[in-house]
Write a structure and sequence with these properties.
Elements (H helix, E strand, L loop, with lengths): L30 E4 L3 H6 L1 H13 L3 E3 L9 H5 L3 H16 L5 E3 L2 H14 L4 H12 L1 E3 H8 L11 E6 L2 H7 L1 H10 L4 E4 L14 H4 L1 H17 L4 E4 L2 H13 L6 E3 H10 L8
Parallel strand pairs: 1-2, 1-3, 3-4, 5-6, 5-7, 7-8
């Protein structure tokens, strides 16, 4: 185990930070940069496109630098500080080119920018200033839609019952569950049901699921059982890693229940095309 965390101080990367003070939100900008995240880019590209559609519908131009890659979180949470710093520095250079607000369709990656980049570059004063500026202009997608765009959603879908899952870091670092709940509440024909494992980890945890597959598998099985037993017809989440893990477990269990990214769910419900079937 020591080899897996050879460069990590005790608990340094595994303790939730103190809850920050209420954030002061800016006026809606004319343009933003979308940081698509590596998981969305590779496994759920439609969610990234739907995030762009949601933003553009609110009158916001979206820039998508093709050179962007990973935020560096897998290396950081595994204790590989130097490797995480190299990846993070590359993203910082890319995102600083425009200086635009950064919208991220993932609370965990958004949390990496806002909360962990400052720790990663604490020993580089000049870089730290750039990192702090990036943190200030970084927003998780649902947060940006709700608090900056002040979006008012018109539900055009059939009645449906859904369950919400939020990743651990998204919940504790970015309050993503609160933003998502408020957006879902705007959808008149959507009923959000609570499930008894809503605040518990799905077992993904990035590289945790690789290092400890038995523990991870048991955790996601508890999560999937809770979702199925909730009475919902599907699950929505704003984090691609959790979505990949939960859907993978459901497929392995040969269950028909599935989840999808919240961006795609919101776009489908409010766009009017293929707006869902009665559930």
């Amino acid at each position: 185990m020591s080899q897996l965390f050879y460069d990590a101080a005790p608990n340094a990367t595994r303790v939730s930070p103190e809850r920050e003070a209420d954030r002061h939100y800016p006026e809606k900008p004319e343009a933003v940069t979308l940081f698509g995240t590596c998981v969305v880019d590779l496994f759920f590209p439609e969610a990234g496109l739907d995030a762009i559609r949601l933003l553009e519908r609110e009158g916001v131009r979206v820039h998508f630098p093709q050179e962007q890659s990973c935020c560096g979180q897998p290396a950081w949470t595994s204790g590989y500080r130097d490797e995480a710093k190299a990846v993070a520095r590359a993203q910082l250079d890319i995102l600083d080119q425009s200086g635009l607000p950064v919208v991220v369709p993932s609370g965990s990656c958004g949390g990496m920018f806002r909360h962990h980049y400052p720790a990663l570059f604490a020993d580089e004063p000049d870089t730290l200033k750039r990192v702090e500026a990036l943190a200030e202009r970084t927003f998780e997608l649902t947060e940006f839609l709700l608090e900056v765009c002040r979006v008012q959603l018109a539900d055009r879908g059939a009645p449906s019952k859904i369950a919400l899952h939020t990743s651990c870091s998204a919940r504790r670092e970015m309050n993503t569950h609160l933003h998502a709940r408020e957006l879902l509440q705007q959808l008149e024909a959507v009923e959000r049901v609570d499930h008894d494992h809503e605040s518990e980890c799905c077992g993904f945890g990035g590289t945790f699921s690789v290092r400890m597959p038995e523990v991870s598998g048991a955790m996601v099985k508890d999560k999937t059982r809770s979702l199925i037993d909730s009475g919902a017809v599907e699950m929505v989440t704003a984090d691609g890693g959790c979505l990949m893990n939960i859907n993978g477990s459901l497929e392995k269990q040969k269950e028909s229940f599935r989840g999808r990214h919240l961006a795609s769910f919101l776009w489908e419900r409010t766009n009017g095309d293929n707006a869902g079937e009665v559930a």
